[in-house]
Amino acid sequence: MNRSQVCSLLPQAEQQKQAAIISAEGDSQAALLIANSLQEAGDGLVELRKLEAAEDIAFQLSRSRNVTYLPAGQGTLLQCGEEEGPLGLIYGKLHIVSSVKNTKSVMQ
């Protein structure tokens, strides 16, 4: 690069620097607003986001060909235990046996 090319890139680099600073300041203000609202209103928003994430995960899993839904209480038929997880959901402890006969525990 010659000197004129470097000089033409300086304003663009300065503009990118300013954009990064403004973005970081905005992120900082957003984090403060969220922290203040959580302090004032409790953690209801966090619970809502957890439920939304769980709903999204369930939707993605429901579209998978390798996932089957089993109603709660059917653990005895599969000889696997059950335990209560977050949000009061019941999770089965399933064991998957691979083709090389290694047993891996899922949902521990």
Describe this entry's structure for a reader.
The protein has 108 residues and is of the alpha+beta class. The chain has a domain at 1-41. The chain is 57% helix and 13% strand. It has helices spanning 3-41, 44-62, 75-78, and strands spanning 82-84, 90-92, 94-97, 103-106. The strands form two sheets. The chain has a two-stranded antiparallel sheet. It has a two-stranded antiparallel ribbon with strand order 3-4. A hairpin with a 5-residue loop joins strand 3 (94-97) and strand 4 (103-106).
> Helix count?
3
DSSP E strands, number: 4
User: Widest sheet: strand order?
Assistant: 1-2
Strand residues, percent: 5-15%
Give the CA-based shape. Answer: elongated
- State the secondary-structure class: alpha+beta
Mean pLDDT: 73
The helix fraction, in percent, is 55-70%
Multimerization state: single chain
Q: Uncertain spans, ≥5 residues at pLDDT below 50? A: 94-108
Describe the biggest sheet?
2 strands, antiparallel
Distance between the termini: 58 Å
> Over all CA atoms, what is the radius of gyration?
25 Å
SSE order, one letter for each helix or strand = HHHEEEE
